[in-house]
Predict the 3D structure of the following.
Amino acid sequence: MSAPRLAEGVQPVLRERGQREVFCGLTGIVWLHRKMPDAFFLVVGSRTCAHLLQSAAGVMIFAEPRFATAIIEERDLAGLADMNAELDRVVGRLLERRPDIRTLFLVGSCPSEVIKLDLSRAASRLQGERPGVRILSYSGSGIETTFTQGEDACLAAMVPELPVLAADSPPRLMVAGTLPDVVEDQFRRLFAEMGIEQVDFFPPRGTATLPAVGPSTRLLLAQPFIGTAARALESRGAKLLTAQFPFGAEGTTAWLHAAARAFGVDEMTFRRVIAPGRERAKRALARHAEKLAGKRIFFMPDSQLEVPLARFLSVELGMVPVEVGTPYLDRTIVADDLAALPEGTTVSEGQDVDLQLDRVRAARPDLTVCGLGLANPLEAEGLATKWAIELVFSPIHGFDQAGDLAELFARPLRRRDLLRV
């Protein structure tokens, strides 16, 4: 993939390496296990990993969750137990108790990576012993990654399992990146109205039948943080369609237009299909424009959603992005959103939290989008904040969610106004 140039007026990327403030990739299990109800995620980690998942997912005591933690004990770390034998025993008990599992993910963590436990080899060995269940592995470690890369690693692990789509097959659209079911249904209806009937969503709602991929696949990304999975799909022959991400009226229009052009949908049909949803989105956004227009916003690096969201807020709502920080900048994937950022926008990649906090304090933006660990200290200093993780857990894609997305940014400003009264 070649890296496009930054838009004219956008400063060169400021690259920083230092102390970081992000969740780990295990957090992705919270939305992945809801999307794939026949899958199970077994984290090989510490009690801290287990507490994180329980807290993040809010699992009630009477629920039957689709994830668990195989806890690494002191005797494992001391080499007094055979880790692979222990893992085999845990997996055996799990599959006996839950015969409905169709795909089992062995998820690595910081502790399992530190002790060099080879979960890929373990998955291969267990797969040979239990052919009725697909057993895969990926890393959810937060040592060098941010939390949304857990989904990227999970999807990349699934790509080799996808069936082969014959080269002479009619073109099929694959939408990659986890979406809430209601949003997926909305997009599927719009594609069908355009005449694009052959549409697969990856990950699917069930792992028993995985979508096929091949040279006839046209790949449209729903999330900007799945670069590794996207490249894996391209290696299988899929052709990537680049576009702005489907946030707001304009972003959703551009995203759908990329699919329409790839499948030869005529312009009149395209405009007729999107017109009702686009108009609803514009009306919903207008209710928040007065509150948000002209407000200065600072994005701390967290989820990799920062560049598309900054484009949405600046172009569609008139906000002024002071700095757009992102953990990792994949210029190919976010090229269209990056090019639409206003002149003078600082784009930063990576994190040195102390230096970035200095810039936040110097800029005194109207709103700072950051992780939970930074929000309370900044609020104590009189700065309004928005929890970045809420943007991942909330339905924000598409026409019908545009107003809800704008509301997520308007709410902290309204709260601040009420507190000042």
User: Anything to note?
Assistant: Confidence is low (pLDDT under 50) at residues 1-10.
